[in-house]
Each structure stands twice: as C-alpha cells, then as structure tokens.
Design a protein that fits this description.
The protein is of the alpha+beta class and about 110 residues long. Helices cover about 30% and strands about 35% of the residues. It is elongated and about 40 Å long.
C-alpha cells in the first residue's frame, strides 16, 4: 500500500514544437497563465519546453493545458512530458492517483 504524502505543488512539463519567435512564446505564456488554477509557467523557446505550475488545491489536468496550447496555435505539436508533485516537507513526491496517467504517459512515450 502506497503512502500518499501531502502535495503542495504540481509541475506539468510539455514539449511544444512549432514556436518560432519570442512573441509566440509570450502569447503561449499568457494563454497558459489565464487557465484557472495555473500559478505560473515558463516557456523555453529554443528547447520548446513549457513548465506549468499549479497548487494542490486546484491542480490543472494535463488535457486542459494541452487544449490551451492548441488554442494558442493549432499548428503546434504538443506532448505531455511529465507531471511531478512536490511537498514542502518532502520535496518531490509521487502524485496521487496517477498510476493510470503514468501508464498512459509511458505508452505515449514508447510510441
């Protein structure tokens, strides 16, 4: 039986292909920041990596973030890279109820 530690923050990491300029990255940052529950996000334009932070009281589901990216520019190719949970007292901890999501992520990565 897995013990669930308290989670205070969730980091969702996305890979976004197709961003070509800083204005694109800024527009994406703004659209993601407008999603309810998002506390902050960073966009690394050259790498195409986006990190989105939310808190445990209103964690944002990855599909909502994927939809927000596609709404920014439908030509973007976006994939979920990871979802990590953090506790102030324990650092990185397993995300609760993510066994199915992890299996889906593993399957997507393997394809």
């Amino acid at each position: 039986q897995q013990q669930h530690l308290p989670v205070e923050a969730v980091r969702t990491t996305l890979q976004v292909h197709g961003m070509r300029c800083e204005a694109c990255a800024a527009r994406l940052r703004g659209n993601l920041a407008a999603v309810e529950g998002v506390d902050g996000c960073t966009v690394q334009l050259a790498a195409g990596v986006v990190e989105v932070w939310s808190n445990s009281s209103s964690p944002v589901q990855p599909d909502v973030l994927l939809d927000a990216v596609k709404a920014t520019n439908d030509s973007y190719d976006v994939q979920l890279l990871s979802r990590d949970c953090f506790s102030v007292a324990h650092g990185a901890v397993p995300c609760p109820a993510t066994a199915t999501a992890a299996a889906s992520l593993d399957t997507a990565v393997a394809q």
